[in-house]
C-alpha cells in the first residue's frame, strides 16, 4: 500500500492479472506518484493490469495523464489495461484525453477472466 496526500494505491497480484486499487483524488499534485504506482504494477509483465477506481473521489485531466506512461509501457509488453468502477467524472476525463479507445473502461467491475466475453484469452 502506498499513501500520498490522501490518495492510496493497493496492489494485488494474482498470476497474470494484477489489480491496483486507487483512492482519493488524482490531480497534478499526485499524478506522478499514481503513474509510478501503475508502472510498478507492470514490473512482472502481467497479461492484464486492472485499475480499480471505485474509491477515487475526483480525477482531472492532469491526473488522467498518469495513465499515459502506463499505457505506453503496457503496450510494449502486451499487457491489457482494464479500468473498473469508473465514475462519470473519470469517464469524462478519459474521454477528454482521448483514452477511451485505448483503455478498456468499465463502470462496474472487470469482466470475468479479464476478457469482454468472459473467456480466457
Topology:
Elements (H helix, E strand, L loop, with lengths): L1 E3 L2 E8 L2 E10 L4 H11 L6 E12 L1 H4 L1 H11 L3 E5 L3 H9 L7 E2 L16
Parallel strand pairs: 3-4, 4-5, 5-6
Antiparallel strand pairs: 1-2, 2-3
Helix pairs in contact: 1-3
What strand line-up does the widest sheet have? 1-2-3-4-5-6
Low-confidence stretches: 1-6, 115-121
Q: What is the H level of CATH, i.e. the homologous superfamily?
A: STAS domain
The H-and-E topology, N to C, reads as: EEEHEHHEHE
Give the integer mean of the pLDDT values: 85
C-alpha geometry: globular
Class by alpha and beta content? alpha/beta
Determine the fraction of residues in helical runs and give it as a percent range. Answer: 25-40%
CATH class: Alpha Beta
The helix count comes to 4
Computed Rg: 13 Å
How far apart the termini lie comes to: 29 Å
User: What is the total number of structural domains?
Assistant: 1
Account of the protein in words:
There is one protein chain. This protein has one domain: Transcription Regulator spoIIAA. It is globular. It has 4 helices and 6 strands. The chain is of the alpha/beta class. A hairpin with a 2-residue loop joins strand 1 and strand 2. The longest helix has 11 residues, at 31-41. The termini are far apart. Helix 1 packs parallel to helix 3 (66-76). It has helices spanning 31-41, 61-64, 66-76, 88-96; strands at residues 2-4, 7-14, 17-26, 48-59, 80-84, 104-105. It has a 6-stranded mixed sheet. Residues 18-103 form the STAS domain. This is STAS domain-containing protein.
